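Data availability (excerpt). The following record was deposited with the supplementary files.
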Amino acid sequence: MRLIALTILTLLSVVARAEAPWGTVDLKAGEALHKKDCVACHVKMYGGDGSKMYTRDGRALSDKLELLQRVGACNAQMSSGWFPEEEANVAAWLNKKYYHFDK
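Predicted structure:
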């Protein structure tokens, strides 16, 4: 019986991670990192406050995993030096603020 319960808990954990690829996050830290390391580049690219990066027609992201991958690619491209947890914080904050991906 214990083995069955443990197996079910393990499967639920895997499903939960699949639904939220960034796991547990700190949204305030994500917002601060975004402001510090992302906004200036996005303003150069799109003008204004840079938010058009996320709200423009034809944006290419379609789910949470793609958003997390894009944040990771920007981190590498800009040599921001973020740890994976920090990338997750920024991705989760962007999702809450702009994307609103459910799954």
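Summary of structural features: The helical segments are 2-19, 27-37, 39-46, 52-55, 64-78, 84-99.
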